[in-house]
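Hi, here's the filled form for the chain we discussed.

Project: internal
Contact: R.S.
Residues: 195
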Amino acid sequence: MKSWRKWLAAAAGGVMIFLLAAIPMLAAEASEQDPAESPAGVAFRWLNFFFVFGGIAYLIAKNGAFFRGNAKAIAASITEATADKAEADRQLSEVTTKISRLDQEVAEMRESARRGGIAEAERLRLSGLAEIEKIKHAALAELDASERAAQHELREAAASMAVERAGELVNSRMNGEIRAKLFHSFLGEIGRSSN
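And the returned structure, exactly as it came back:
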């Protein structure tokens, strides 16, 4: 900590000496010449470059670990969110497959009812239509129930994963000092409520 202050003081002293030495050079320069193109102007530009570059290098060196750690945490969160999304997509695909099978089963039941005997065709037609309507309503009700159950199951799975992830995040970011404060606060609340 003190070494950089010594370095900064030495650099400031060097700059002052350089400025004092440059003043006579500036006075000797012709008035037509552009001051930025003079040797002193070039020297000042290089000196300015070194100060700016040194400041930037110092800030990067001082805060580099923070930025790398933050970038790693963000990358890990993105990777985990991608995996969670892939799992949710897989579960959604399974639910969609189950729903499409129900439609297929309903179509098969309708075909089976249609293949009734020729002799009983008229009687079966009337009773079959009624039966088909009942099956249709039952299948639609079952389809709706299955879809609701699947959505509920998907929500529960997503909520469970979110709660687990939140717990992991809280545990990973909560150090011993924060836990101790929470515990003492909890004990204080219990003490106040018992009085």
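Let me know if anything looks off before we file it.
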